[in-house]
Design a protein that fits this description.
The protein is of the alpha+beta class and 149 residues long. The chain is built from 5 helices and 4 strands. It is globular. The chain has helices spanning 5-11, 15-25, 104-120, 122-126, 129-134, and strands spanning 39-42, 57-62, 77-82, 94-95.
Length: 149
């Protein structure tokens, strides 16, 4: 199997572009209106881009924090779930590295695979557990929103 790191690095001018390429391979649409700090991924694919960040969504950012950095200075993608007010919910769902440099191609591929899997898990599309917990209602802890990679 040929290495894609060299070809991906030369094709993608930024780590964010490399991540977008990896997400596109899974058919994941990303709201990149706020390029610079993070990307937002809606739970529902038909969410209009103007309302992605004001609905349940995932955010993806580098520890730097930036998505426009060079792939060679990548320190690891972090993915958070956000509620319908845009507030992050709990710990990161996915986090790579420990603050040092991380292989951007491998991390982008892993983060994209995690995001695609998270979005297509049946519970993601209908579970409202976080908002229920906010109002004191319990839910099934087997819900994939608590699943760790």
């Amino acid at each position: 199997m040929p290495s894609t790191a060299a070809s991906s690095t030369s094709a993608a001018a930024t780590a964010g572009a490399m991540l977008l390429d990896a997400l596109t391979a899974y058919g994941v649409r990303v709201d990149s209106d706020a390029v610079g700090m993070s990307y937002a991924v809606a739970f529902e694919p038909d969410t209009p881009s103007w309302s992605v960040r004001s609905s349940f969504h995932l955010s993806v950012a580098d520890r730097a924090p930036s998505v426009e950095h060079a792939p060679v200075s990548h320190t690891g993608w972090t993915v958070f779930a956000h509620d319908d007010q845009g507030e992050p919910l709990g710990d990161p769902l996915y986090i790579a590295g420990s603050g040092g440099l991380v292989d951007c191609a491998a991390d982008s591929a892993a983060a994209a695979m995690f995001i695609a899997d998270y979005l297509t898990a049946p519970v993601s599309r209908h579970c409202d557990c976080y908002s229920q917990e906010r109002y004191g209602r319990r839910h099934d802890r087997a819900c994939n929103r608590y699943r760790k990679p």
